[in-house]
Amino acid sequence: MFIFSDVDECQSNSSNNCEQICVNLPASFFCDCGDGFQLTADGHSCDDINECEPTNDCMQKCVNTIGSYNCSCDEFFKPDPTDWRMCEATDPCSFSHGCQHVCFKGSNNQPTCTCFANYELESDEKTCRDINECDPANPRHRCNQICENTPGSYKCSCQKGFELKKDGYECEDINECLDEDLYNCTDEFHKCVNTRGSYKCECEQDLYFIDGKCRGLEKNETYKPLLPKPRLPSQKEKGEAVKFSITRKNGFEWDFEKDKSFKEKMAFLTTEFCNDNRTRCALKGSRRKRRSPLSELYTADQVHLLPGYPSNSSGSLQVAFYVQQPLGLFIRNFSVLPRNTLAAIIISHKSELETAIGANISDVETLFKPTTPTTLATAIPVKPSSNDWKWIAIGVGVGVVVIILILVFVFWRQKTRHNPRVKPAWDDSPHDQEAIAMASYNRGLEDGNAE
């Protein structure tokens, strides 16, 4: 009987290349950094963290140093002896200055107001307003997951399954499998497997979970694991799903092993892509360019097939799925990987996915396409701008003037018809009759001559 013991690579610099901290694992290790530093992409070097960005607790000036930072003061101020982060005026104002926080006299010897750290002066130049560091539109905090604004500062916390690191900003996964009080696996041959923010129970090697127990197979007994039952997706998860087709050849079947292999490969490829393209994946920027092997960005447990899939369609197999975002790392409400990004990952790594499942993939497309209005009746009316209203008012005014002029002209015509001028009497000679017949054409001229 052979007993194997783990070799602690962290005990010797010749077996690890960590610049600062080495963390031993069974049959492996990984590197970490001390306070004020972050791990670089090479996995062993450490870079200084700029504590002055995006925000800090210095009242006025922040000066970054290697592994830390210092505060300094503006002109007309000096450091507060009771708090190195604060500043006090070298020439303070009288008590009746009206400033909410601090009043000082500058070069013009006039009282001027200023505010403490993480406050800004209101338009009245006296009142100070707290800056909300947790505002998503203006992210000034370092919180990895949950940010709570406080007067003049903010506080970080973590979601369930995570704990705050010693830096007070970042969250790290809790390994529930290290504490029996944190996990519950129902069978004695179940082993706890840690996942990001949670855990799962799996049977030990060569054992299968049959009828609620982990057991081995009897002689000549075969066991075919069933496909996992898809979880009930939300409308948002359905909307971000992607579908592809598989041509069914040589008796291809989407079974438990194909399902597992696909999800693991998809999680690996998504992790690789999103580590380098966090914006396209709707993820927060990472202060650590490389994560420890204990916590992958995406895992197979975040890859979900939609209920009813795979499904048969005209000799091909249709597969539709979506990918959940890692807890605490997505921006705003993007709790699902955007469908266009997911489709791009599949298309660019199609050959690797085909190798994983042993079949060809085609017709990659988003499952639900956004609908666009096809008739003017369904179009949303556009509100006129302020300049549009001016032109509308001018048009209405001109129209009213034109209508008034038309009415005046009609009234004048009616009046002239009902009040004709007095005409001279004519005799019955043929000449006179011709003159009467032409009267209607020459009336205007005759009236002018009569006057």
Describe the protein in words:
The structure is a single chain. The chain is an alpha+beta fold. Helices cover 22% and strands 25% of the residues. It contains seven helices and 25 strands. The chain has helices at 235-239, 256-276, 339-348, 350-357, 386-418, 430-437, 439-450, and strands at residues 21-25, 28-32, 37-39, 46-48, 61-65, 68-72, 77-80, 83-89, 102-105, 111-114, 119-121, 128-130, 146-150, 153-157, 162-164, 171-173, 190-195, 198-203, 208-210, 213-215, 242-247, 303-305, 311-313, 316-323, 361-366. Strands 21, 22, 23, 24 and 25 form a five-stranded antiparallel sheet that branches. The longest helix has 33 residues, at 386-418. The radius of gyration is 40 Å and the shape is flat. Residues 288-294, 372-387 and 420-451 have low confidence and may be disordered.
Give me a quick take on this structure.
Helices cover 22% and strands 25% of the residues. It is built from 7 helices and 25 strands. The strands form 11 sheets. Strands 21, 22, 23, 24 and 25 form a 5-stranded antiparallel β-sheet that branches. The protein has a two-stranded antiparallel ribbon with strand order 1-2.
